Amino acid sequence: MKKIIYPGTFDPITNGHLDIAERASKLFDELIFVVANNPDKNPLFNVQERMEMISRSTGHLSNIKVVSTKNLTVDYARDNSALAIIRGLRHVSDFEYEFQMAMMNYNMAPEITTIFMMPSEKYVHLNSSVLKDIAKLKGDISEYVPGHVLEQLQSKLNS
41, 91, 122, 136: which one is catalytic? Predict the structure, then answer.
């Protein structure tokens, strides 16, 4: 079985994340979202909430699995027999960081390939942090996140 992992914070998941996941899921037998459990990032949503949002957003895709880990992404990939790690690149500026991470992962596990994928043009500007900032100021982000994610975001920000 060909597996790919899609690691990230996903705080919250956006239509850009989903665009990449849907396209990558067509190339592999299984795509595993690996939700980062990194309290240093101070996420708005806890890990369970983020996992539930991803599961609900990807319910129409039969080959998606959602997990979390506190371990290194590359270790999770190796331990779960993943062939590759998918990373989204929105801008050229993303590449420098992602390239460094890909090279470090390669040095730690040369059998695991990093694949870079650009989101569709209509999502290239999306960023979870920016969307949260817009939502905090009551801006309309409805075209950038699934409806249930928008509801959870508004509920969280208004509580």
Answer: 41
